[in-house]
Amino acid sequence: MAGAKYKIVFEMMIKKYKNEFMEFKKIHDLYLKEPKKTKAEFNAQGQDILEIIHRYENTLCGHSENSGYGKFTSGLTDKFWQEIRSLFPKIDEVGLK
Prior knowledge:
- The chain is mainly α.
- The protein has helices at 5-16, 18-33, 35-66, 70-87.
- The chain has one domain.
- Helix 2 crosses helix 3 (35-66) and helix 3 (35-66) runs antiparallel to helix 4.
């Protein structure tokens, strides 16, 4: 179960914020084609999306650290972010100049 925990948290996040993620997907995909033209909107929407992601990341990792499994936290985080990057390959460019 612990191995799939990141997927459960990821799916809960996507489901709860479906509209926000769908809107970001639109600008993300435009950003892939025209980065200079869409950078400002990509960053603005991306900041909101990152806040949501970090909230769920903290939920995922907080439970592991408090239960004495802190060393597994980075592995969970990595897998969680792999799921995010599979949908949004440019997510790490939010806020970059």
